[in-house]
Specification:
Layout: E1 2-6, H1 11-22, E2 26-31, H2 37-42, E3 46-49, H3 57-64, E4 69-72, H4 82-103, E5 107-111, H5 126-143, E6 148-154, E7 156-158, E8 165-169, E9 177-179, H6 180-192, E10 199-205, E11 208-209, H7 210-217
Parallel strand pairs: 1-2, 1-4, 2-3, 4-5, 5-6, 6-10, 7-9
Antiparallel strand pairs: 8-10, 8-11
């Protein structure tokens, strides 16, 4: 399975690339900075330099041609301001979906965030409010497309070792944290499981094995 991952140097993406490569799949990490290529390639993935804040849909679609799935795992990241929450967390997702449509890649997984889907809480920091708004608008765009999309909203992310145990369900899920290892493992399970398209899911660590949690949600 060839899987193209936007935000290919992100912490979740690197874990996902490593898991895919270890089982013989062909992950491709889209990166903005050529200096990140070695890190991506060490996971076993192919690194492709493509700045999603500057790219056009046509050339980007060329990188997606022949892929079985696309994963949007990009984000402006800590320390970025309001403007980049929109140019990365929203606009880059819209661009990737445009390119997926052009390339004929139907399967599209979007990593969003708990809190998306509702207005930011009153009194929220302006950067956090922009982040949640951008994620919400990216989700809304994806839902309007004829793609086999799945939206995954993780809770607070940690670097603890993965547990393999989660709470995964349609919103609302009580707020909590989840390891980046387990987010990557859930993405793999969603890619592998038919009938998980057109679902919006929230994710925290819990007490259900990942495979079982995903199977419970799959449509017949």
């Amino acid at each position: 399975m060839r899987v193209v991952i936007a935000g290919g140097h992100g912490q979740i993406a690197l874990r996902l690339e490593r898991l895919l490569a270890a089982r013989g799949d062909s992950p491709v990490g889209l990166i903005r900075n050529p200096g990140q290529a070695d890190d991506v390639e060490r996971t076993g993935a192919e690194a492709v330099v493509c700045d999603l804040e500057q790219a056009q849909a046509g050339p980007l679609a060329a990188h997606l041609t022949g892929a079985d799935a696309v994963v949007f795992a990009a984000g402006a990241g800590p320390g970025s301001g309001v403007a980049r929450k929109f140019t990365v967390d929203r606009d880059a997702s819209v661009l990737l979906a445009d390119a997926a449509e052009q390339a004929g890649v139907r399967r599209f997984l979007q990593v969003s965030s708990m809190g998306a889907g509702a207005p930011p809480q009153p009194g929220s920091d302006e950067v956090w409010a922009a982040y949640i708004t951008a994620k919400t608008e990216a989700e809304d765009d994806l839902r309007g497309r004829d793609l086999d999309w799945t939206i995954l909203r993780p809770g607070g992310l940690t670097n603890d070792p993965g547990t393999g145990l989660v709470t995964l369900a349609a919103p609302p899920v009580p707020r909590g944290t989840v390891t980046r290892d387990d987010v990557a493992a859930v993405l793999i399970a969603l890619l592998d499981t038919p009938g998980t398209d057109r679902l919006t899911l929230e994710l925290t660590n819990g007490d259900v094995p990942i495979h079982e949690a995903v199977q419970r949600l799959a449509k017949p």
